[in-house]
């Protein structure tokens, strides 16, 4: 039984955006062996091609920490961000 659902184009685009990656960087991260991985990635986000469950799982695993931190940061208020900056010595 498959534990990962096939992603929708909007899920792919959202994950990439929250990870702070370009389409090109995302494509090279998952498909380093492709001659032109950007074309495939563009088709996934446009809904012209379905991303395999394996490729989606790989992308999620490789971007897990970045994605989680960016989601957490987006949920913080301005005062919370200021406190976090002080805690980090920034």
Number of domains: 1
Helix-strand topology string: HHHHH
Which consecutive residue ranges, at least 5 long each, have pLDDT under 50?
none
Biggest beta sheet attributes: none
Strand content: under 5%
Count of individual beta strands: 0
Report Rg.
16 Å
Q: Assign an overall shape.
A: elongated
- What is the level 1 CATH name? Mainly Alpha
Second CATH tier, the architecture: Orthogonal Bundle
Helix content: 55-70%
Instruction: Indicate the CATH topology.
Output: 434 Repressor (Amino-terminal Domain)
Assign the structural class, choosing from mainly alpha, mainly beta, alpha/beta, alpha+beta, or little secondary structure. mainly alpha
Average pLDDT level: 80
Helical stretch count? 5
Please report the distance between the alpha carbons of the first and last residues.
Answer: 47 Å
Summarize the structure.
This protein has 90 residues and is an all-alpha fold.
Characterise this structure.
The protein is mostly helical and 90 residues long. It has a single domain (9-87), classed as 434 Repressor (Amino-terminal Domain) (Orthogonal Bundle). 69% of the residues lie in helices and 0% in strands. The chain has helices at 9-19, 23-30, 37-46, 53-75, 78-87. It is elongated and about 45 Å long.
What topology does this entry show?
Layout lengths: L8 H11 L3 H8 L6 H10 L6 H23 L2 H10 L3
């Amino acid at each position: 039984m498959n534990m990962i659902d096939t992603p929708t184009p909007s899920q792919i685009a959202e994950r990439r955006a929250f990870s702070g990656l370009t389409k090109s960087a995302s494509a090279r991260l998952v498909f380093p062996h492709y001659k032109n991985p950007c074309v495939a990635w563009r088709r996934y986000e446009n809904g012209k091609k379905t991303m395999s469950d394996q490729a989606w799982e790989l992308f999620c695993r490789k971007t897990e920490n970045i994605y989680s931190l960016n989601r957490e940061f987006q949920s913080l208020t301005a005062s919370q961000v200021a406190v976090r900056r002080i805690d980090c010595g920034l």
